[in-house]
Amino acid sequence: MDRRNFLKQSVFASGISLVPSFLKGMEFLSPNQLSGYKNVIIIQLSGGNDGLNSIIPISNDIYHRLRPSIAKKEGQTLKITNDLAFNDKLKELKGLYDQGEVSIINNVGYPNPNRSHFRSTDIWQTASDTNQYLSTGWVGRYLDANCQHPYQAIEVDNSLSLAMKGNKMNGIAVSDPNQLYRTTREPFFNDLVNNTHKDMLDEDNQGYLYKTMLETYSSASYIYETSKIYTTDTAYPQSAFARNLKTIADFIVSGLKTRVFYSSLGGFDSHVNQLNSQDRLLGIYSEAIGALVKDLKKNNRFKDTLILTFSEFGRRVKQNGSRGTDHGAANNVIAIGGSLKKPGIYNEIPNLSDLDDNGDIKFSVDFRSVYATILNNWLEVNDQEILNTNFKNLGFI
After folding, report:
1. How crowded is residue 238: how many other Cβ atoms within 10 Å of its Cβ?
2. Residue 22 pLDDT
3. Which residues pair with 275 in a beta bridge?
4. What's the domain count of the chain?
């Protein structure tokens, strides 16, 4: 791998030309500008979350028959309808659902599903076909087409996902804005900023290095200075995932000009003894979401925020011999927000009497239709320009 490609895939890669005026002053959204400034928070449950034990077909005999040891019983669920129930660890989501702030989209997937974690994650993050290999993510292409600064898409993590990487511009990965700022104030960075001239920014490996580092320097300043405007006093759980969501809330309420946030919670590859491990993770997820929504509501930002949760695939309907589940296909996607047009159960529940040849749920909603809906209806941009094909608008927002 050459230096340019290495940098393009690194945490600091931003890949656009330097905006000199940016270093002269910081911009943020004033309280008046904040109203109506829409953003989306994308959360990946990495490892393949079992959607059937998250949003449970509680009255389905096939579900209970194929999962004799791991099917959730009625006392372990929170009722949605006579046919569906939340896992009892999702009590915060159940509360939001009851307030009309959750939309559950069932049977989301894509044709010819791939059951590899790595490949299916790439497919979801790039919005590609199964046999198509893309080097840019769908959020990265949104940045390329519609944004001026890399910090308009931020991943709260130590590394940048493929979803956030474009051709001309990448998002910024930051888990701690203070640490990122301190790192970019080391003598090496200061010397680079003070001694870089315009003619050093040609499009070769060295020029790309200079531009990347300069953009990192300026973005770190912007994120650090702006995020100091607001620090939440809302109590968040003591988990790494909750801390990430707290950081996102601070960014949003401070007036950071970011449109897309990305974070993840891992550990959902539940081949063995699934019940305890998945329940623990769903509890972490739900409690953190509950705190985030409370924080955003308190600051009048929830109505302008959409939270999308997905996993790279669902799990096999039939449990395996280790009281777990193997890699599956279609899954549910959860949208949370204060401005949903279609809250509740968006579409039909999984049909467990009509599975594919592997014993997996068949998809009826292409995941790229979810992206198209967000791009067109929420971020108000041309979804076809980013996704390269016309996908159905689902209208849940």
Report:
1. 8
2. 37
3. none
4. 1
Residue span of the structural domain in which 88 resides: 3-387
258, part of any domain:
yes
Q: Using one digit for the tens of pLDDT, what is the confidence trace for 324-358?
A: 999 999 999 999 999 999 999 999 999 999 999 99
| CA–CA distance, 75 with 298 (Å, rounded to integer) | 33
Structure token digits, residue 49: 């979350």
CATH of the domain at 26: 3.40.720.10
The region, left, alpha or beta by phi > 0 then psi within -120 to 50, assigned to residue 100 is left
Interatomic CA distance for residues 292 and 236, integer angstroms:
8
The 8 Å CB, 24+ separation contacts for 376-383 are 378/38, 378/40, 378/306, 379/38, 379/40, 379/142, 379/146, 379/259, 379/260, 380/38, 381/142, 381/145, 381/146, 382/145
CA distance 313 to 327: 7
Under 8 Å between Cβ of 337 and 372: no
User: Which residues neighbour 312 within 8 Å (Cβ) at sequence distance 6 or greater?
Assistant: 44, 46, 47, 48, 117, 120, 121, 123, 124
In a domain, 261, yes or no: yes
Tell me the pTM: 0.89
Look at residue 353 and give its three-state secondary structure: coil
